[in-house]
């Protein structure tokens, strides 16, 4: 058997395994029943601010909550399965549904009261302005 034929066989074997696992109500990815996910994020820093981008495809801004508590930025919300698929059987389900929460520790130089958020095309963009450095020189007696 050629390498090409072997690769094709693996593709079809994996497809059949996915179908069989899905029919039993499980997943091959180890994510259980797909009721939880954590949004993927990027955090960038420049001289003036921190920028946090979170991928939240398929949501609208009313499904997303953003809070600052105990020096942490918390992004949470819930995704719901489309009602049009309630009849019949789902053969493969890789998308996640349910509640999600993502928490990021904030550095001490963030002006929490000035954080802004924008949501467009499934991407949440947060701007976390930096405060002026604080501190005190201690003199030794």
Any overview of this molecule?
This protein is an alpha+beta fold and 141 residues long. The protein has a single domain (3-24, 36-81, 95-129), classed as Immunoglobulin-like (Sandwich). Helices cover 15% and strands 33% of the residues. The protein contains one helix and seven strands. The protein has one helix spanning 3-23, and strands at 41-45, 49-55, 64-69, 72-79, 98-105, 116-120, 123-129. A four-stranded antiparallel β-sheet has the order 1-2-7-6, with no helix packed on it. Strands 3-4-5 form a three-stranded antiparallel β-sheet, with no helix packed on it. The longest helix is centred in the first third of the chain and has 21 residues, at 3-23. 7% of the residues are buried.
Quick structural overview:
The protein has 141 residues and is an alpha+beta fold.
Q: Give me the count of strands.
A: 7
CATH topology: Immunoglobulin-like
Low confidence ranges:
18-35
In the sheet with the most strands, the strands line up as 1-2-7-6
CATH level 1 class label: Mainly Beta
Overall shape: elongated
Largest beta-sheet characterization: 4 strands, antiparallel
How many alpha or pi helices? Answer: 1
Radius of gyration (CA) equals: 22 Å
Give the overall pLDDT as a whole number: 79
Structural class: alpha+beta
- The succession of helices and strands, N to C, reads HEEEEEEE
Q: How far apart are the termini? A: 84 Å
CATH architecture descriptor text: Sandwich
Query: Which strand-content bin applies to the residues?
Result: 25-35%
The percent range for helix content is 10-25%
Integer tally of domains: 1
